[in-house]
Amino acid sequence: MTEVLQLDPECPQHKAIERAAAIIQTGGLVAFPTETVYGLGADAMNETAVRRIFEAKGRPPDNPLIVHIASRGMLDLVANDISEKAERLVKKFWPGPLTLVLPRNSQIAPSVSAGLRTVAVRMPKNEIALGLIRASATPIAAPSANASGRPSPTSASHVLDDLGGRIDMILDGGTTDIGIESTVLDVSSDAPAILRPGWITREMLSEVIGPVDRSASAEELRRSPGTLHRHYSPRARVVLIERGSLKRIEQLCREHLKQGSVGYIGHTPVDIDDESFHYIPLRERADDYGSSIYASLRELDQTSPRVIIVEGISEEGEGAAVMDRLRRAASEVIVND
Hints:
Blueprint: E1 3-6, H1 14-25, E2 30-33, E3 38-43, H2 47-57, E4 66-68, H3 72-78, H4 84-93, E5 98-103, E6 118-122, H5 127-136, E7 140-141, H6 156-163, E8 169-172, E9 183-186, E10 193-196, H7 202-209, E11 213-214, H8 218-221, E12 237-243, H9 246-257, E13 262-266, E14 277-281, H10 286-301, E15 307-311, H11 319-329, E16 332-335
Parallel strand pairs: 1-8, 2-8, 4-6, 5-9, 10-11, 12-15, 12-16, 13-14, 13-15
Antiparallel strand pairs: 2-3, 3-7, 4-7, 5-6, 9-10
Helix pairs in contact: 1-5
């Protein structure tokens, strides 16, 4: 059985944190909230415990994990040769939704890095997460706490739906704030590059360390979680309309309704009176999509639709992270000006 403990996200109960830390210290798995999504944690120094993460999620072994830390001092247990640029980023953005790819310290369990010489590491901005890491007295490896390929969990109930019975404990700290995974920035070489977009944008990073590229090669992308496999998908097929008029969106919804139930997530209101049509409206804002898109995909999945149609948003600023996730979730992408 998976035990679920409810915690106050602002002032988490010490005894609950200590119980969860004891599980981490003895090689168990604990799901916990961060400011981005819920993570599935294990002792990053314990190879057997880390392998349990892959087993519980059904995660491919070539998909590396992010290591979570609670202090600058803990970073030295995880990574080597930390550059001056990396130090500036740590000072500016940690704790927060920025993951840095750095040269790996050999003390870290090999499976964490999927055989690579680098390691992805961040300091979460969440009191429950930080409390758990401190009480465990070890860096915690933690990918998103969902079955591999499914939409990332933004609530404890999502974790329980996917991993109930496979993990030891869930720390329920309510709904996560951002709802989109962290930015992953490779600073293991002289040319920093974004491997996965997130809430810390390229413009923000460039203000601190100068020019930042967007990585495209498969070899570079291997250093980041969530880049080489299909991710964030509900059971239903997802069709993403990157740009489309009301007429085109309605036409597409009606076409699919001829063959079965349809879900629609978007900021353009659609007037379709059909009991087989399920609509979740969102504002045309990155923060609204970010905080709601995974939960919306899961909610519509419960209606067993034939297809879920999602309307895209602008890629300016944080919108790039939202569109990155939607493209990875989609089976079909439609561009229609």
